[in-house]
Every structure is written in structure tokens, then in C-alpha cells.
Automatic annotation (TrEMBL):
It comes from Acidithiobacillus marinus. InterPro entries: Peptide/Ni-bd, SBP_5, SBP_5_dom. This is Peptide ABC transporter substrate-binding protein. It holds the Pfam family SBP_bac_5. Residues 72-439 form the Solute-binding protein family domain. GO terms for cellular component: ATP-binding cassette (ABC) transporter complex; outer membrane-bounded periplasmic space. It comes from the Bacteria. The keyword Transit peptide does not apply. GO terms for biological process: peptide transport. The keyword Cell inner membrane does not apply. Gene3D superfamilies: Dipeptide-binding Protein, Domain 1 (3.90.76.10), Dipeptide-binding Protein, Domain 3 (3.10.105.10), Periplasmic binding protein-like II (3.40.190.10). Keywords: Signal, Transport. Belongs to the bacterial solute-binding protein 5 family.
Length: 531
């Protein structure tokens, strides 16, 4: 019998071993990584790798509080009027080439974001840059951000100041934006890091490998000797890769949950639901589906969806209802109204029929609703191998007279169509969105927002979002989330828990996968490992 260390005693955890996994473990179906520059990427899969290479200014824990022990920042001093935020840095953080992480790296980030403007995927959300009056370096280990008006401190710390993550100024300052684009996957470009891992190799369409940053100055140094992300393109391929041993860690597709006993060398960990929301989203600029602009139609769709059935069929009972963009696990930001709705559910097909009739859409001879010669029908893009959920959704909507045509398409192609401002042909998507530590609409639903690929616009919603930024506490967030649930700019779908399978000699899964969908493989370890 070999000695197995207790997971909480890091001094007894063995080091070494390679873990092969896939992008999106604990978060979503697999997809390829396409770049590693945090200034130029917006995919959650790319961000997963970036988060391992670059330590954040603020490390947000499971209760959505800042853990300053794991943060670049040592503390924040908020001015009495909630308009100034002075951030002090720890002095022990170093880049992998030995140079100390300082406010020069913070300033580089700020000026790069200002140079990129709307080209930066996170532009115009979290209060950056519209709410910022000034940014000033006070010294090598302190800087101050002054806002144009009093802001909600908790929101600004978790959403606004989080943009000021340091990146290696001394290594990147010589590159233009075009050169950065040209080096999105160049391993040498990312040789200087301050996170627990560094990029070892990248093979387009195949895999990316990472190894520990031997100069990592944080307290949670990795135990494994190599981490490989294989780029698989379907849930089924993950299952068979787990079965064959080609990967040792991956999400077990929910449709194959009953087949989990075939994975005789693996153990199951149930995580989540993740910090985000699943949804049916629409292209409001497409005239062929103009009916989605009618609030009654969207409310009817919400009431037509049997979320409990989706949870039972898709997640084998492992899931939670959801009707808004504020996640319910943990329920730290839920309004009283949201908690009540979640406990009661909203499934009411008779009400859905009534609302559609009220909107002037009546059933035709084939049962599909019609108005002025147009059918209430749309085409929904769905990621590969995710047929069960979209099929269930289409069946539920068909019962109230709405026809849904399903079309499978790789995530990258769907995303490319959505973000292309000239592409207005797509109609609907079946996707998910991850949230920040303080969950607001950001620029996803803001009129003209950078991330608003749906072309949705509601001035009242914008006004409610704006109040979240300036009102201390949670009341403004409560009012916004209640209005969002009423309006349903996207039809929010239930949150499923995720089944994660790992080889029996891999430990630390629950700690490595966070409620926010983050992946921290520095907490994984392998017993009986061979490097």
C-alpha cells in the first residue's frame, strides 16, 4: 500500500505527474484555445489558460471576497466619499525572469486598455473606462484610481479595479497591437509570467501544454509537473478519451451519466452550478424574428420552459432553476423576489398560450402561430453534441406554437457570427455566459455595449444598471435583477451541475474547480505519480 497524503496538508502532498485534460473542464463543453493574450481574447477557454500564467490583482474567493494573501494587491483604502481607491501592492511578487511586479506593470495595463479602446473585449463594462476620472501611480507599490462620482465600493473593487491586472511591461512594451495579434499563440511571447504556470507549447487545433512556473512567488505552488489541454470538439469525444486514458480529467457529458460505470479507472466529482447563466439568445436586429422584440412573446417563452424537466432529463436531477442573470449558487446576490420565484418556478404553458394570443399570434392549421402571414419560427444554433437540451427546449416551445429549427455549429463559428457587426443573418443561439464577482449586466445588454452581440436595447434597463454602480449595498442590484427577469432579454435556462471525472490517482478536484467556473490546477495532485 502506498502512502496517500491528506488533501489539506500541502507539506505531505507528493509532487510530479502529468495531467491531460481539456479546455472548459468544470465549466462547459470542450473547445479549442485560440490565443493567450488577455488584452485581445474574450473566450472563456483562452481566459482559462491566461489565468494560470498571470496572477490577478485581486484573488476572489468562493464567497466573492478578496483574498489578499493570493492577490498581487496587499490592501485597498477607499476614500470617505467612495470616489478614490488607493491600492497597495505586495512587494514579494516577481516575474519569472526575477523582476519585481510593480505599478509600472499596472500602468502598462491601464494605458494598453486605453489604447485598445473598444477593441478590448471587456471595454465599457465594470465601470471601465467611463466611471474613471484619473489613474495615478503613487510609487512602485501603490496607485490610486479616482472615479467621476461616488460608486458602490464592492462593485467597483470586484468589477472595475479587476481590470488593473499587471502584465509584464518590460517584456511587452516593445510590441505594437498588430504585433501582439501576430503573436497570439507564440510561446516565446509569453515567456515572462507571474502566475503558477507557464506556456510550454501550443499546437493549433491539437493541444496546449503548460508546466509550473519555477519562479512562482505565490504560496500555492503547483504539485504536478505538466498540464496538457487537448482540444477535443465534442462531449462524446471527452467520454471516450477518458475511457481510453487519453485524458485523465474531463467533464462527463450529462447524457452519458448513466454510463459512468464504464470509466472504471475514474472517480466522479459533482461541481457547480457554475457562476453564470445558460440562455436562449436572440439577434434583435434580424427582421425575420422581429416578434422577439415583443415583451409578451419573451415572457411566454419563459413560462413555456419546464425547467424541472430539463434538470431531470439533462442533469439527472443535478441542477437548479434560473430566471435571471444573477446566479443562485451561492445565493449571496439574490433578491427576495428572485428567491421566491426560484422556489416556486415559472412553468405555466396555459399562461404562455394566453400571452401569445394577447400578442396577436394565433395558431395556424399546423399548430404554429402566425401573424400577418408570418410564422413564429426561428433557427437556433447549438454547440456540437448538445442536442438534448435544445431538443427539449424546441419541444416545449412547439407545445405553445413556436417552431424552432435546430442547427449544430462549432462554438468558434457561432461566436464569429455573433461578434461580426455586419452579420445579421443569425437568429438565435443556445449558449452560456460566465459572470464576474459582482454580477451585473456589464455591457452584454447595454444599448450599444461592446459585448452586446444581440443588439438588444432598453433604456430603462441601462438606467437600472447604472444605479448599481453608484449605490452602495445590494438594493440597486435587486431592482435590476427583478426587472431583467421580467424583461427576459434572453430566455434564461436552468443551471446544470457538472459531472467531472478524474483518474483515481488525481486529487483536489473540488478545490481546483471554483463556483465561478474557474480552474486552478495548482491545487491538483497525483498519487503514485511518475513525472
Amino acid at each position: 500500500m502506498g502512502v496517500v497524503a491528506h488533501a489539506d496538508d500541502s507539506s505531505k502532498i507528493p509532487n510530479g505527474g502529468t495531467i491531460v485534460t481539456v479546455p472548459g473542464v468544470g465549466l462547459a463543453p470542450p473547445a479549442a484555445m485560440n490565443g493567450f493574450n488577455p488584452f485581445l481574447t474574450s473566450s472563456a477557454y483562452d481566459a482559462e489558460a491566461e489565468a494560470l500564467m498571470y496572477q490577478p490583482l485581486f484573488w476572489v474567493n468562493r464567497d466573492f471576497q478578496i483574498n489578499f494573501k493570493l492577490s498581487i494587491a496587499k490592501k485597498i483604502v477607499v476614500g470617505p466619499q467612495h470616489q478614490s481607491f488607493t491600492v497597495y501592492l505586495h512587494r514579494h511578487w516577481k516575474w519569472s525572469d526575477g523582476i519585481t511586479v510593480t505599478t509600472a506593470d499596472i500602468a502598462y495595463t491601464y494605458h494598453m486598455l486605453m489604447k485598445l479602446g473598444p477593441l478590448y473585449p471587456g471595454w465599457d463594462s465594470g465601470g471601465f473606462p467611463d466611471d474613471i476620472k484619473s489613474f495615478k501611480v503613487l510609487g512602485p507599490f501603490s496607485f490610486r484610481v479616482v472615479t467621476k462620482q461616488a460608486v458602490n465600493p464592492r462593485w467597483f473593487e470586484l468589477s472595475g479595479l479587476s481590470y488593473f491586472n499587471p502584465y509584464p511591461e518590460h517584456s511587452w512594451k516593445y510590441y505594437s497591437i498588430k504585433q501582439m495579434n501576430d503573436n497570439m499563440t507564440n510561446v516565446k511571447f509569453y515567456s515572462v509570467v507571474d502566475g503558477p504556470f507557464r506556456l510550454q507549447s501550443f499546437h493549433s487545433g491539437r493541444y496546449a501544454s503548460m508546466v509550473p512556473n519555477q519562479a512562482f512567488s505565490g504560496p500555492d505552488k503547483p504539485h504536478i509537473s505538466r498540464l496538457v489541454f487537448r482540444f477535443l470538439n465534442s462531449n462524446a469525444s471527452v467520454f471516450f478519451a477518458l475511457k481510453s486514458g487519453a485524458i485523465q480529467l474531463g467533464n462527463l457529458p450529462a447524457p452519458l451519466y448513466s454510463a459512468r460505470n464504464q470509466l472504471t479507472n475514474d472517480h466522479l466529482t459533482v461541481v457547480g452550478p457554475i457562476w453564470g447563466f445558460n440562455y436562449l439568445g436572440f439577434n434583435f436586429s434580424n427582421p425575420k424574428i422581429a416578434f422577439v422584440k415583443n415583451l409578451l412573446v419573451r415572457q411566454a417563452m419563459m413560462h413555456a420552459v419546464n425547467q424541472d424537466l430539463m434538470i431531470d432529463v439533462m442533469g439527472y436531477g443535478y441542477g437548479a432553476r434560473a430566471y435571471g442573470l444573477v446566479p443562485g449558487n451561492p445565493p449571496v446576490y439574490l433578491s427576495p423576489e428572485a428567491k421566491s420565484l426560484l422556489s416556486q418556478g415559472a412553468y405555466d404553458p396555459k399562461l404562455a398560450d394566453k400571452l401569445l394570443d394577447q400578442a396577436g399570434w394565433h395558431r395556424g392549421p399546423d399548430g404554429i402561430r402566425e401573424k400577418n402571414g408570418h410564422k413564429m419560427a426561428f433557427t437556433m444554433y447549438m454547440p456540437p453534441s448538445m442536442v438534448r437540451g435544445p431538443t427539449l427546449l424546441a419541444t416545449m416551445l412547439a407545445k405553445v406554437g413556436i417552431q424552432v429549427r435546430l442547427r449544430e455549429m462549432p462554438f468558434n463559428e457561432v461566436y464569429a457570427q455573433m461578434v461580426d457587426p455586419h452579420s445579421k443573418k443569425w437568429q438565435a443561439v443556445y449558449l452560456a455566459w460566465s459572470q464576474t464577482g459582482f454580477p451585473t449586466g456589464g455591457s452584454i445588454f447595454k444599448c450599444g455595449g461592446v459585448q452586446n452581440s444581440y443588439h438588444y436595447c432598453n433604456p430603462k434597463m441601462d438606467a437600472l444598471m447604472a444605479k448599481i454602480r453608484v449605490s452602495p449595498g445590494l438594493n440597486a442590484l435587486y431592482k435590476f435583477q427583478n426587472y431583467f427577469t421580467e424583461q427576459q432579454p434572453v430566455i434564461v435556462l436552468p443551471n446544470m451541475k457538472i459531472f467531472v471525472m478524474a483518474a483515481k490517482n488525481i486529487h483536489g478536484i473540488s478545490r481546483a474547480i471554483t463556483p465561478a467556473g474557474g480552474f486552478n490546477p495548482q491545487y491538483l495532485w497525483v498519487s503514485h505519480a511518475k513525472s
